[in-house]
Amino acid sequence: MSAGFAFAEDVTVTRVVSTLEYGAIFVGETPAGDKVRVRYLGRTELPVAGDTFAVKGQWSNYTDKFKRLHRQVETKLMKRRAVLGDLLGPFLQRVPNIGPQRAERLMQRYGHDLIHVLSDPAHMDDVAGVLEPDKPALAARMTAQLFSAMAEKSAADQVRLAEAEFLVFLEKLGLREPRVANRLWRFCAGVDAISRLRSNPYLAAYLTEWKVADRVGKHVLRDAVAAEEIERHPARLMGALASVWREILSEGNSAATEPTIREMLALRGVNAELALQHAERNGNLAKRGELLRAPGAAWLEEEVARMLKDIKATPARLFLPDEQRLTALIADAEQACDLTLTSEQAAALRKLICLPLAVLQGGAGVGKTTVMKVLAYIWERQRGNVVFGALAGKAALQLSRGASSHGAPRLAYTLARLIQILDNPPDNRRPEVEFNDRTLLVIDEAGMMDTPTFYQLLKRLPKGARILLAGDDGQLFPVAFGKIFHDLVEEGSRVATLTKVLRQAEGSVIPLVAQQIRSGIAPVLPLWNGEPRGVYAIDAAQMDTLHRSDDFMLIAARRQTVDAWNEVESAKRRSDSTPTRRLGPLATVAGGDPIIVTQNRYKHGLFNGLLGTVVAIDGERVQVHFDGEQKPRELPQEAEADVELAYAITCHKAQGSSAATVVLMAGDGALVTREWLYTGVTRARELVLLNIVDQDRFGEAIARRANRTTGFEL
Questions:
Q1: Where are the alpha helices (DSSP H) in 655-694?
Q2: Cβ–Cβ under 8 Å, residues 266 and 272
Q3: How far lies 427's CA from each of 418, 431, 432, in Å?
Q4: How far apart are CA 380 and CA 332, in angstroms?
Q5: Helix, strand, or coil here: 321?
Q6: Secondary structure letter of residue 385 according to DSSP
Q7: How far is CA 693 from CA 538, 543, 699, in A?
Q8: Pairing status of strand 594-597 against strand 643-645
């Protein structure tokens, strides 16, 4: 439509840009697939991704922060639509030969009665006419397949039928987020799924934002209790507390003070006193000192602490060298690896080799990889075996290169791959990686390893294996909850620390600038003038002229900036004929798009923060070349909803990866801390371009510290 013409169409929300005091701004799609941005100026509706509204308004123009002109619809009139098919459509399309068009025809014809129609053979002729009215023979075959799939009496088909009915039930409640609906189904799966949800109406509080969960929960409760009882119903109280824990965990914490919990419950419209009393009576309130702990996270932290204590208490199975023998081994290692240890590195090595659980701590460029390389050499000479691991693919690749020497290649693996190997030992052949009671597991970039991943790894290690965690506690905390590496560094008893920056010998100023930031000093950065190496400031005008190379990373502080940049950059690289594929609610991808994984899926070798590039789209299949892997592979279907575009990423997601050129869009918000800047700068191998407001704000950001609260103790 042209500017000035009235807009009156249904719009399905794909992303909420911001929530205003009087309304909201969101991006959505029309039934024709056209993208539209809507500015809603009203109080009656709160849009959530997946909602569909009948929108009536006028076109207007607005200018974004990059000074680009866009159109948007201004409206005060929005009415929520109950839309059929957002959940049922994908289910139908899993039936052989029923694609999007035929599924749409069936839903248009029968609506929410479709499941019952397909369960009654008397409707077969009518259904055949809907599927293919002009091809009776083909229609008959497809109808037979469809009815067979829906009506077979096997247990599997009964569960599939129950899944369809469950999705219809959720649609009627107003839930149209496929990702949340599918996760709810996995929780409730079975022929009695609907009754299970009715017995726990606020199950969605564990999976999605409180507004959606409360809406679903209240709808379910209305069938069972009086309206005046809903607000104080125990299910709602516990749902609100679950929602609080979900928010706390999403920020990386596993615990909070009681006043914080009370405030968050009050913001959800729940009586905090009643909720906490109910949780304590039911044994769902874990405490440590003044902290309240998220129940599941508290259990994981206790398990990790127990397993680490077992490692400490288990005697070594190989002979540890005495001082004289160790001195000789260090000399041999220096000669074999063609290097010379500093006195600080040698002292760290002597301490680490004697500890069953050891921590190597140091900033960028201090030679941690050199110490790990020599330690591996000595351990192998004592007839032990060393396994190298890192969370990110690029970190594993760099560790492989740094820990190897001529004639002694050492392969490092991602932690997800190591977990796969431990879960699937080979039959009658030598394993790809050997784990036994003489194994030293060395984990690099350990500061970004979250508690769930550490737990998954520890519970699979054989008794007697030893661990070295190497990392930098000056960086940000992990993406998911926990900060075990940082906690161990703070405790200090098993830590060897390197402080002397050595990498300036390679001609890079990046480690030196990073060390200044880490120490709380705000370096004065020259304005970039096209230099290929170094650390520079960059202004807004220069941002508009940046050329994205293959080895390039743009890191933004605000999530809204990441989303806006991804939307603009992906649109610039596509035409109407470009093949694309929608991967759940978070991304529509095309060949060449950088992507990032947002959830851990250990069985597929995927982890939160893994970067990759889409190399091909072949029908429903998406081929991705993930960082650190030798060749592309197909993205698993169940992981599609856990992928986002990565033309820009947050700093948390960047941890463990690197690029030749890194651009930091810092802004001046509270999200930019000393740790944020230090982590961002150390992602670059050659060039850092820092977009800052001014030198004073830069200094304020460096003075600001990141914080995370956990209940972990060793």
A1: 674-681
A2: yes
A3: 17, 9, 12
A4: 12
A5: coil
A6: E
A7: 10, 13, 11
A8: antiparallel
Q: What pLDDT is attached to residue 2?
A: 42
CB 180 within 8 A of CB 152: no
Burial of 526 (0-12, 13-18, 19+ CB in 10 A): exposed
Task: For residue 621, give the amino acid letter.
Answer: R
C-alpha to C-alpha distance for 77 and 357, rounded to whole angstroms: 62
181-196 burial, b at 16+ Cβ within 10 Å, e below that, comes to bbbbbeebeeeebbee
Cβ proximity of 182 and 164 under 8 Å: no
**Domain architecture of the chain: domains with CATH:** 6-81 (2.40.50), 323-500 (3.40.50.300), 510-703 (3.40.50.300)
Nearest to 679 by CA among 650, 709, 703, 699: 650
- Dihedral sign computed on CA atoms, order 437, 438, 442, 447: positive
Q: What is the pTM assigned to this prediction?
A: 0.72
Compute φ and ψ for 644, nearest 5 degrees. Answer: -130, 160
Residue 389 near residue 413 (C-beta atoms within 8 A): yes
170-182: per-residue pLDDT in tens? 877 777 777 778 7
Residue 33: phi and psi, rounded to 5, are 90, 5
Q: Which two tokens stand for residue 684?
A: 């670059």
Nearest-angstrom CA–CA distance, 561 and 567: 10
What pLDDT sits at residue 3? 44
Residues of the chain with pLDDT under 70: 1-5, 19-22, 43-44, 50, 65-66, 82-91, 94, 112, 149-158, 160-161, 428, 503-507, 584-586, 668
pLDDT at residue 153 in the model: 39
Rounded distance between C-alpha atoms, residue 232 and residue 271, angstroms: 7
The CA dihedral of 422, 424, 426, 427, to the nearest 10 degrees, is 130
